[in-house]
Design a protein that fits this description.
The complex is a heterodimer of chains A (about 260) and B (about 400). Chain A has about 260 residues and is α/β, with parallel strands linked by helices. In chain A, about 35% of the residues lie in helices and about 20% in strands. In chain A, helix 2 packs across helix 3. The longest helix of chain A has 22 residues, at about 165-185. Chain A starts with a strand and ends with a helix. Helices cover about 45% and strands about 15% of the residues of chain B. Chain B has an eight-stranded parallel beta barrel, surrounded by eight helices. The chains are: A alpha/beta (about 260), B alpha/beta (about 400).
């Protein structure tokens, strides 16, 4: 289990809750639109790395969403966070919304980014294959788009279903809060100009994508791959938008190989 | 007591199987359902109905703003208000209203409302809705979580544009203007009365009470369900130590007046069903958008959310008797309607009753009857309610307005 920590940044502009585990080179995990769920893939990564996983401003028990007007603010915040928790340079894994954030941070805060892993990320737009309007998609459809196999043991292990009415209300509340924050960077179209900047990413980059992603179709791999010169691609079989939760072993194996390479 | 005739201007020919074949009346109703010739007829009939209401003595006539909506064909209520301003004499033109965050720059609202106020001789009531999630975040692409902040900034800009005698620069987060100096300026001083249509949001109660704007609860579910929301507003008024002046609040109610209670069912049951089962067929995921409602309000509403969802799902099973019993529609003979409305007005404590005498696909003939019966058999009996209060939320027209006839060149 990770250690739960809190840090106040820029005189309380951001009050961030974050989790750490493991020893080794620093590794920063930036979660996606739905929020942070600490699961087995992070425990596995923590066996070789010093993993840090913050809840972004506006998510979970972190505050400061009001201070972020756009992706520039968000990317600069990543630098503020690293300073506050003493990370000088880290490998960065960004998933979904966190993938767009990781890419922007690798452009604007390149000195903090060692190697970069971008996983099923938003940030581009293609009229012929639109990103799902996931912020308003009803939960059942969203789950079907996000997971290849909802019944798999790995998914059940990572996401516990609410048992009481109170837990259900709490889950609804957290979901509302998460998507409220995500909407600031992804609504109505999750294109905030990354296409004009992505060539500035110099960090060696692994682009990981679940082949059945119903939120951000795998065709978007091309946008990241053509934009980032020093990149390679891994398409993972039998998973959708959440590869690290659906196939933690496959995901962690690929990431570790890349980071050690 | 004041009565305002409200029109939604629905598209009147949605097919019988609309609910089965289409996801939603709002946001994505298919263009193949729209016949411009039907709209041509409908718009002109609807304007006739509003003008008739003004003629038979309603205090005001109301129009509102919706987008991509088959039950509200007024993307620009100002166009309607402008036609009405020319064809009416003393009724208030209540534009309910312009969704401030959707105008770029928002000074457009200050300008157009000032035009309406000048044309009408100071009869404009300026409504500033935030706008529904469907209108704002879906049809107009606004970011939900910043919508209210953008709205408040636009409000500040419009209010200053109306009142500051000097040109000024405005450095906002959402709007930056080097020169704000609107021409024309509103006739009413310091500005037209401001009415705020609201749902049940805590922030809107607080704000309307604090700054003294009229709070209007526009619900399609009648006075019984409106009680809780209006109580929330009046509790806030009390909490702030203000006078509980009924004119500080308005409420929207469907009404159908006929010769007898039995005739009312014959006249209005079909149109009520059209409204609740076609016009209100809205995809739930369009209406509940994360970030549109503040977290504080979400928390307050969580326990009743499941209940609300089941109420919406239940609508398709409701019959005329249910609509009437539940107060969604106040209907019957003039005596029946009078009695019920007296209770509604007293219990909700409202000085402004906005009435929907057209609803669904009601034909013009029946609307005219409804309007005429309401104006002659209902309204006069309720006009003297709240005599001890002054309406500080009302228009202040010029003494001798220029009439259309006088300006016409023959």
């Amino acid at each position: 289990m990770p250690d739960e920590k809190r840090v106040s940044i820029r005189d309380g502009l951001y009050e961030i809750r974050y989790f750490t585990a493991g020893q080794g080179e620093p590794l920063l995990f930036l979660h996606g639109s739905g929020g942070l769920t600490w699961a087995r893939f992070l425990d596995e990564l923590a066996k070789d790395y010093a993993v840090t996983a913050p809840e972004h401003p506006g998510y979970g028990e972190s505050s400061g969403l009001d201070a972020l007007d756009d992706m520039t603010d968000f990317a600069l915040y990543v630098g503020d966070f690293c300073d506050a928790v003493g990370i000088e340079r880290a490998h960065v894994i960004g998933h979904s919304l966190g993938g767009m954030l990781a890419a922007e941070a690798a452009i604007l805060q390149a000195e903090y980014v060692n190697k970069l892993v971008i996983c099923n990320a938003i940030g581009f737009w293609r009229d012929e294959t639109p990103v799902l309007d996931y912020i308003i998609t009803p939960p059942e459809q969203l789950m079907a788009a996000a997971f290849h196999d909802l019944e798999s043991p790995a998914v059940a292990e990572a996401f516990k279903a609410p048992e009481t009415g109170e837990e259900m209300q709490q889950m609804l509340y957290e979901r509302t809060k998460s998507f409220m924050a995500a909407g600031k960077f992804a609504w109505p179209i999750p294109d905030r100009g990354l296409k004009r900047r992505i060539h500035r990413i110099k960090a060696p980059t692994l682009i990981v994508w679940g082949e059945h992603d119903g939120l951000v179709p795998p065709v978007y791999v091309e946008d990241f791959q053509s934009g980032i010169k020093n990149s390679k691609v891994l398409i993972m079989k039998d998973v959708a938008h959440m590869p690290m939760y659906e196939d933690p072993d496959g995901f962690v194996g690929a990431v570790k190989d890349f980071l050690k390479d | 007591m004041k009565f305002e005739f409200f029109h939604l201007m629905p598209y009147p020919e949605l097919p019988d199987d609309f609910k089965e074949k289409h996801q939603s009346v709002w946001v994505d109703p298919h263009s193949s359902l729209f016949d411009p010739e039907v709209a041509h007829r409908a718009y002109n009939e609807y304007l006739d109905e509003l003008e008739y209401a003004a003629e038979v003595g309603f205090d005001g006539i109301c129009v509102n703003e919706h987008h991509a909506n088959a039950y509200g064909m007024m993307p620009s209520p100002n166009l309607m208000a402008s036609a009405l301003a020319r064809n009416t004499k003393d009724a208030a033109i209540v534009v309910m209203g312009n969704s401030l965050a959707l105008y770029n720059p928002p000074t457009r609202v200050a300008e157009e409302f000032a035009m309406l106020d000048c044309i009408s001789g100071g009869r404009l009531v300026a409504g500033f809705p935030v706008g529904t999630p469907m209108d704002t975040t879906l049809a107009y692409g606004q970011v939900p979580v910043t919508l209210r902040e953008k709205y408040m900034e636009a409000h500040d800009l419009v209010m200053r544009a109306w009142q500051d005698p000097e040109p000024f620069a405005f450095n906002g987060k959402y709007t930056q203007l080097r020169y704000v100096n609107i021409w024309p300026r509103p006739l009413q001083k310091p500005h037209p009365p401001i009415w705020i249509p609201g749902g049940g949001s805590l922030e809107t109660w607080e704000w309307c009470a604090r700054v003294g704007y009229l709070y209007a609860y526009l619900s399609y579910f009648g006075y019984q369900r409106g009680m809780q929301t209006m109580k929330g507003f009046w509790d806030e008024v009390e909490r702030q130590g203000l006078e509980p002046n009924p004119y500080h609040a308005g409420f929207l109610q469907f009404i159908g007046v006929s010769e007898t209670d039995e005739q009312a069912e014959k006249d209005y049951a079909g149109a009520a069903d059209y409204f609740y089962n076609r016009c209100l067929h809205i995809a739930p995921h369009f209406a509940n958008i994360p970030g549109y409602t503040s977290l504080r309000t979400v928390k307050a509403q969580l326990p009743s959310m499941v209940q609300q969802a089941s109420q919406m799902a239940e609508i398709s099973t409701l019959k005329w008797k249910d609509f009437v019993d539940r107060g969604y529609i106040v209907a019957g003979s003039p005596a029946t309607v009078r009695e019920q409305l007296k209770d509604v007005i007293q219990n909700l404590r409202v000085g402004h009753l906005m009435v929907l005498l057209h609803f669904g696909n009601l034909n013009k003939e029946t609307v005219t009857k409804n309007t005429q019966l309401f104006a002659t058999e209902v309204m006069p009996y309720l006009k003297d309610m709240w005599p001890e209060y002054e309406d500080k939320w009302w228009i202040n027209p010029v003494n001798q307005p220029v009439q259309r006839e006088l300006a016409r060149v023959n």
